[in-house]
User: Which sequence fits this backbone?
């Protein structure tokens, strides 16, 4: 994945066939987790904290359902990845890039939580979680390219 054009809040990325397949595979895994990553608070009245956590879980479920719908639309949109010589072009607006960054992060964090929150990727590999560790690294790669494109647009 490589940025090939950036103009007026529109970004065009070039993908190889394999990169396109990997991004689709990652996005199809969304959502990985269904619960908040941690407690909403470590202090406060237990009843109030429980009530707030329940509201958070409901809000997150609604957001994930909407994002799942958007992922399906993103992957299913005819011409989303325009075939060009030697690969594909993907055109994204700034808002679409922000959304894609959030989805990639949700997958990455969800896999980390599912693997038991290890402190290092090596621990995931040694613990038998090779595919999630690789998927997390791919998410990070795609996120870094997207963030680099956004950062470059502010020069």
Assistant:
């Amino acid at each position: 994945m490589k940025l090939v054009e950036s103009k007026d809040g529109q970004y065009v990325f070039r993908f190889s066939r394999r990169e396109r397949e990997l991004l689709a595979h990652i996005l199809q895994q969304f959502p990985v987790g269904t619960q908040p990553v941690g407690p909403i608070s470590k202090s406060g009245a237990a009843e109030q904290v429980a009530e707030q956590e329940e509201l958070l879980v409901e809000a997150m479920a609604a957001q994930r359902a909407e994002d799942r719908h958007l992922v399906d639309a993103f992957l299913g949109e005819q011409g989303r990845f325009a075939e060009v010589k030697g690969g594909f072009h993907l055109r994204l607006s700034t808002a679409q890039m922000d959304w894609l960054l959030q989805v990639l992060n949700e997958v990455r964090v969800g896999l980390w939580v599912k693997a038991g929150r290890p402190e290092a990727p090596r621990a995931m590999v040694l613990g038998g979680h090779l595919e999630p560790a690789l998927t997390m690294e791919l998410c990070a790669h795609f996120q870094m390219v997207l963030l680099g494109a956004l950062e470059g647009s502010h020069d």
Summary: The CA atoms of residues 66 and 121 lie 30 Å apart. Strands lie at 2-7, 10-15, 81-84, 87-93. The chain is about 60% helix and 15% strand.
